[in-house]
Amino acid sequence: MLGISRQAKADKFGSRGQSLGRTARRGCGCAIAVLVVLAGAIAFLGYRYALPWWKKKPPPPSGELQVRVLDVGPVNGDSILITSAGGKTVLIDAGDTSKGKVVVEALKRNNVQQLDYLIITHPHPDHMGGATEVFKAVKVLNVIDNGQPPAIPPDLAPAAKPTPAPKKSTPGKPAKLSSITKFYDDYKQAVTASGAHYEKATPGMKYDLGNGALLTVLAPTEPLFTKDHMKTGGNETNANSIVTRLDYGAFSMLLPADAEEQTEHRMLSKDVNLEAQILKIAHHGSKYAASEDFLKRVKPQFAVISCGAWNRYGHPSQTVLEHLRAAGVKVYRTDLQGEVTITTRGKEGDVVIKTAKETTEDLFAGRTAQKDDSSRSGFIAYGDFGPPPKPKK
Question: Mind listing the domains of the chain with CATH numbers?
């Protein structure tokens, strides 16, 4: 009987062991199944999201990238030449109508025989005016603008119905409309004649400049600004400027053209990367741009102001310069230092900035405004002034 009892116990424990073994194997099988499911999910997410991101990610920087903020003074104006390490070239704006030849000379000096992209940020003559000379001098492959015509006051707009042949102009009273829009009409004709591919700027659009350099469009965004949005200052044509961002490895530069404070606030409300090493100060340093909130978001180490010594609008504004000084930003100015050349290989701390000339003047001393470049002050003409009058003693 004792032997039978021991055998029964042994059989019982053996049965329990087999049961535990089966349970362990089932548990192990479930764990493997869970791991397989997790691995599949991770693989799907990687394929769905990580792979496209990796494909879009630019390659590591290779070679030297150059940005030249051209001196198109002494009138106000902007013209910025980007040359990537891979040899692609971008010209952002072309200076005033009278400065087209200056821009062309800069292109020739830098051996630019073809522009991959010509970006005209907005239809003001101090940005668009020199473009016709550029089209005559070099091959332009792609043209990008904001798709907007100049803002013309109702009293200067063309008549709604056909008018008879114009009479001879009265001396001293030139035809207002043709003089106001000629720069724009000439630009549109030059674009058509050039055969360049044209496209309207689209926020989020990225242009691969090769060797890891990427130019991204940040603005304008819909709905476009109108005169009603500009009651606190600035003007709608400037506010609808094309804003771009240049990235190359560790290097970054924000290029806001003549964007106004309203443009800045709209960008601040969106999920876009605004932080940049170098900021091209918007609107030539106007008091209606480069707000404190915007500077806090961008956090620039360097700022470049493209402006002319003859401008009547107080560019750069003392207010903007004080904001830059308070933020510890190193400032460069084309009106005092001429062309500003920026070079980088996309590495940390390797940015080199050189100016065409030295100056003993105070870079943080603003200019006194004689006119208000705001829609609320009426129609504004740009870049058509000679030397400003000497201050009265």
Answer: 65-151+176-369 (3.60.15.10)
